[in-house]
Amino acid sequence: MIHGYPTTPAMYAYAAKRMKEEGYDVYAPLIPTFGADWHDFQKTSFSSWYGWIEEYYENLEKEYENVFIIGISMGGAMTLKLAENHNPAAIAIIGAPVVYNSFFRDHVVTSWPSYIARIIGIFTPSIGAGIVTSRPDSNDGNEDWKGYKGLFPKQGASLVWNLKSIRKDLNKIKVPVLSIHDRGDKTVPFANQQIIRREIKTEAEFIETEMSDEYRHTHHALLMYKSIQKSLMDKIISFFKIK
Questions:
Q1: Are 93 and 179 in contact (CB under 8 A)?
Q2: Rounded to 5 degrees, what angle do the CA atoms 5, 233, 187 make?
Q3: pTM
């Protein structure tokens, strides 16, 4: 289970419990510099995060006949990249980005300021950085969100830059894919689900959720949300069982 940016594996508390109950050995690693010291985090990039995750996966691949991967957000993008380069038994991605800003090609703009993030990063390693251990203004399970707050221009730009190659290689994926995305996702636009559906060539299933606006969160880290996590894990478990 691969966590997102800039959070921690705590987002998988319920999902990990469910998978263990189904008899799976569950691994939800903390990517180095996440959830530790944001001063160290701002010295890293997507390449170092993915390199570590890929080595972690390769070690599991030596130990198990079948390895299944679940990834949320950036973890979903990394899951796609792993499937492009390796042969997991099946993957499930939730709110996975393959584009961030793609106005002319896809009419997708997640954040206009991100166009100058790399320039800002030359002069400013972080803005308003800190550690978040809870979000009391949120609900539906999102109050337990843990990770970094603030902006990390270089790190964010490195993630966005690497999405280009992940999207380009979607046709290399040969394993079964389950992709889940909420139509009202405020972090990664739902258009990403549509792009993956259009450009992936392997066996794939797509789930579109539509959460109520009564929930005070971004409709993004879906496996954290108490209102929907059970039904989604039921579908993921069922998908993995038949693969």
A1: yes
A2: 30
A3: 0.94
